[in-house]
Design a protein that fits this description.
single chain, elongated
Length: 129
């Protein structure tokens, strides 16, 4: 039986493989343990363990159950929500740290206040992109 730390490390590596973001970026979200717990609860222990065991294999070699599980975990990282049933957003932090925002070079709307009077200032070049 694996310890939680081993399982968390394995989940981090799997998440990096599925999302294309490196381990450091995945860990920097602060959501690894939260998402691991959501994945275990939603997929079930058996399917979750099989998904961790399939790490490194091309997705074309995965059976339908494992492929669906991989898609669900990828969706979780990019959107901060579980696609269901029933679909749900894990937390406000998961929405704010969804990898979709990072991939687009944006900050999630309504998650980082711009400050008083910021509307009067011209956006910087990086804010326009």
């Amino acid at each position: 039986m694996r310890t939680s730390t081993d399982e968390t490390d394995d989940f981090t590596e799997l998440s990096a493989q599925l999302t294309g973001f490196d381990d450091d970026c995945i860990r920097a979200t602060g959501l690894v343990e939260v998402y691991r717990a959501v994945a275990v609860e939603q997929l079930g222990t058996d399917l979750f363990e099989r998904l961790l065991g399939a790490q490194g294999r091309p997705t074309g070699e995965l059976n339908d159950d494992l492929l669906d599980a991989a898609r669900a975990v990828t969706f979780l990282w990019y959107t901060g929500s579980w696609q269901g049933p029933p679909p749900f957003v894990v937390s406000p932090a998961s929405y704010a740290h969804g990898l979709a925002w990072r991939a687009a070079g944006l900050v999630a709307p309504a998650t980082a206040p711009a400050g008083y009077g910021s509307w009067a200032e011209r956006p910087t070049e990086s804010e326009v992109r």
